[in-house]
Amino acid sequence: MADNVQIDLTSGDSRWEEALEDAAADARRAIAAGFAEAKCNETVLISVLLTTDAEIQTLNRTYRGQDKPTNVLSFPAEETPAIPGEPRSLGDIALAFETLDREAKTADRTLSDHFLHLIVHAALHLIGYTHDADEEAEHMEALEIAALTRLGVSNPYEDTGGEPAIYGTREP
Question: Measured between alpha carbons, how far is 172 from 35 in angstroms, rounded to an integer?
Fold first, then answer.
């Protein structure tokens, strides 16, 4: 299922290696599941940075103008023609350990399940999905839920009483 996804993973914090058995394989599976639900079968390369709250806060301040840590950021690559026989570089995903760990505990989910959810979420952003309007958010959430089901992960939105989860697509 993940043959069309290549991952370049960098970890800037040893807690990631302690918490996740094989983050690169998990990220590849999550992206492939999200792409399958979005009907995207292009061969791509995605860089994934596993980092800390401090580093993601710097990225968030620099690129989004928000001086606070966040769980995940996605940075789509500039649209360039593909090199024949090579995967197209789709962009970058960065995740902050402390925020993901805290959110997972608050939501009574495993860090692994939360990681898979946010990788799917960020990958959908890289192929153009947004959640700026309620209709877009509902569509993106439906894709996430379907992709997570493929991965054996329960619906992260079902226990929210209809409200967006703190770890969901819509920011509070």
Answer: 26
